[in-house]
Specification:
- It is a single chain.
- By secondary structure, this protein is α/β, with parallel strands linked by helices.
- It folds into 3 domains: 61 residues; 97 residues, Dna Ligase, domain 1; 93 residues, no CATH class.
- A 4-stranded parallel beta sheet has the order 2-1-3-4, with helices on one face. It has a 4-stranded antiparallel beta sheet with strand order 5-8-6-7, sandwiched between helices. A 3-stranded antiparallel beta sheet has the order 9-12-13, with no helix packed on it.
Length: 313
Amino acid sequence: MTELRVSIAEDDPLINELIQISLQKYIPKLVKVSASKAELQWSSYEAIHFENILSNPKSLCNSYIFRKALIRKHFLANTAQTWLSKHPQSVLAKAVPRTYLLECDYADYLDEALNESFELREALEVNETVKENERKYLILKPSMADRGQGIRLFSTLQELEEIFEEFEENEDENEDDKDTGVVAGQLRHFVVQDYVSKPLLLDTLRPNRKFHLRVYVVAFGALKVWVWSEILALFAPSEYQSPSTSPDEMDRHLSNTCLQDGSVKDDNVLRFWSLPLPEEVLQTIFSQVCEISAEIFEAAAAGQQMHFQVYLS
């Protein structure tokens, strides 16, 4: 192919430039056109002209049309649970923490919501019968939020009620970009998961920090999935302490770099392959990442056709 009609419209001008440079390595002549006439569209999901994609089987874009089964937390949890009900030996059984679904707008409706999520209510009732330092903590995540917003820890029904009351107080307040606050009226679906209170802590330049892996995956057609080997390890800005000893300082343990100051952000991002672990351990983890990525995409494609649809061209 010597010529390609493209529409590149990412929000970040730097990303636009990088995409264009990458495409020109393989296709020397790029002709910029409107999204409705492009053979390739690369933009935010909301800006993609899907009518063009559906009417022209040879045209491409950088997103599946239906993808909620993987990108929304409560849909993702349902994807995994549905798959495990049919494939109990799946790798997802150990890769996905126990998850409860919670549908609630305001604190006044929490009791009714827990009637639907009765397993969560039972877990909270068990916590009420043990000593405070023996409670099992849970983590609340709004399904539609990102950048660490709305993530909270709790161990009792009272603490969960206080969280929703806090969300309501934010209704008329402007939240800072680096704040984890959310507005209750804009939320409805949540997932609640068992909190890992004894995480792996590594002796790095900034030791004893919680971290998570950021894995970049590309999926194409129906269905090929590639996992990029250049994984990042994102570390929290402060040393980890158990929630039973510091329940009000959970934000310090979040490893989302968007919540960190620029002066320390770079120090908290490491290459996965540079972590102080034996090579065979790193290779095992990478193999597990690949296996889990493949399995969750297969689970979505095979069992969630309403919410994840691959291209059958």
